[in-house]
Design goal:
- The chain has an eight-stranded parallel sheet.
- It has a single domain (2-28, 92-349), classed as TIM Barrel.
- It is globular.
- It has helices at 2-15, 31-40, 49-56, 66-76, 83-99, 111-115, 122-140, 156-168, 192-200, 215-223, 240-249, 257-262, 274-279, 291-294, 298-307, 313-325, 331-349; strands at 18-24, 102-109, 143-151, 174-180, 204-209, 229-232, 252-255, 283-286.
- The longest helix has 19 residues, at 122-140.
- The chain is an alpha/beta fold.
């Protein structure tokens, strides 16, 4: 009986239209694709799924910490062995989103991650991904925009090159610049001037903050970087002043529940602050972060929010619409997206 109920839940959440604002390309590789690449290019890693999985996906029994979580990316960066591989991986991310009924997605990628293993020029590696995503979005019917991400644990010089790639790609679907990486050990401040220049060039801005670092980083992202959106940001609840600032300024929080648990931000799924953030009047959205790494999809996160964290279907709908309203789109396209999602959600859930 329990499994039958779970199955019906799965079908329901799978059927809902979705918006994804926070998904990293580098954490979205299919395990089957990684195995094929490993064999074809004779990479120094297991060719067996059970043996490869712990190297690229978080497993039960592992320490749930940011160190363990980030360690997977060392292996994941080894797969970008050719332009064709980069194009394939980018295409498959869009295909997987389409299969999960994602109607709009902002996919972020790190040029250095794509280029490093073969020492490709960053602009060339990024271009392969950008072009492939554009074609896949058209083929699979998922409206997709791109965010170029830079890591705070890498150099400002690398970030500057990536930012220029973002500016140059604005006519090909690139809409924003993101600051990510090891927040616990590296400051955001060295990248401030770079992000100001990117904003002046017309790019939007989202900052990873309040994930492995404390609420002071959320305050910095809002007050200093003037970020429109906050990647994760869940530790904002630790400081009433940070909550008050976020409620006043209303940046959109890109919350990723499973990722926060697996990376040690929260001690358990049940204690995740997503409900408290909503109760505090913050603008909250639900996202996957790294679906392959976490072995989830956005349907799983929607189900988790309702069945484990107690969100109502109406609250889920509001989070989904908040994501659409926070999309880095021109006003007319954003309004059209919101209205189409309202209509589809009403049809799926039998509500106006």
């Amino acid at each position: 009986m329990q499994s039958d109920i779970q199955h019906r839940h799965r079908i329901f959440y799978k059927s809902l239209p979705k918006v994804e604002l926070h998904r990293h390309l580098e954490g979205s590789l299919r395990l089957s694709t990684m195995l094929e690449i490993a064999r074809e290019y004779q990479l120094d890693m297991p060719f067996d799924a059970d043996k490869l999985r712990p190297m690229v996906q978080v497993q039960a029994g592992e320490p749930f910490s940011h160190q363990n979580f980030l360690s997977k990316f060392k292996t994941l960066r080894m797969f970008y062995q050719s332009p064709e591989v980069i194009q394939r991986i980018a295409r498959e991310v869009v295909a997987d989103a389409a299969a999960d009924n994602v109607r709009y997605m902002e996919l972020r990628f790190t040029p250095m991650a794509l280029a490093q293993i073969k020492d490709y020029p960053l602009a060339e590696a990024a271009g392969w991904a950008i072009d492939s995503v554009a074609q896949a979005a058209e083929d699979y019917g998922v409206q997709t925009r791109l965010i170029v991400s830079v890591n705070r644990h890498e150099s400002v010089e690398i970030a500057a090159e990536a930012a220029q790639i973002a500016v140059d790609g604005m006519d090909k679907g690139v809409v924003a610049l993101d600051l990510a990486g090891q927040e616990a050990d590296f400051q955001a401040a060295p990248f401030l001037d770079l992000f100001k220049e990117a904003r002046q060039a017309g790019l939007h801005m989202t900052i990873h903050a309040g994930e492995w670092g404390g609420p002071e980083n959320v305050i910095e992202a809002i007050n200093v970087f003037q970020a429109e959106r906050i990647g994760h940001g869940v530790r904002v609840t630790e400081d009433p002043e940070a909550v008050a600032l976020a409620r006043e300024q209303q940046p959109t929080f890109e919350v990723c529940v499973t990722s926060n648990y697996q990376s040690g931000v929260v001690s358990s799924l049940e204690t995740h602050p997503l409900p408290a953030m909503l109760e505090s009047g913050l603008d909250v959205t639900i996202n996957t972060d790294d679906p392959s790494l976490s072995q989830i999809d956005l349907s799983d996160e929607y189900e988790l929010a309702c069945e484990n964290l107690g969100l109502s279907i109406e609250q889920l709908r509001e989070c989904m619409l908040s994501a659409a309203e926070a999309a880095f789109l021109p006003d007319e396209k954003r309004t059209a997206l919101v209205e189409s999602l309202k209509a589809e959600f009403a049809e799926k859930n039998g509500k106006e």
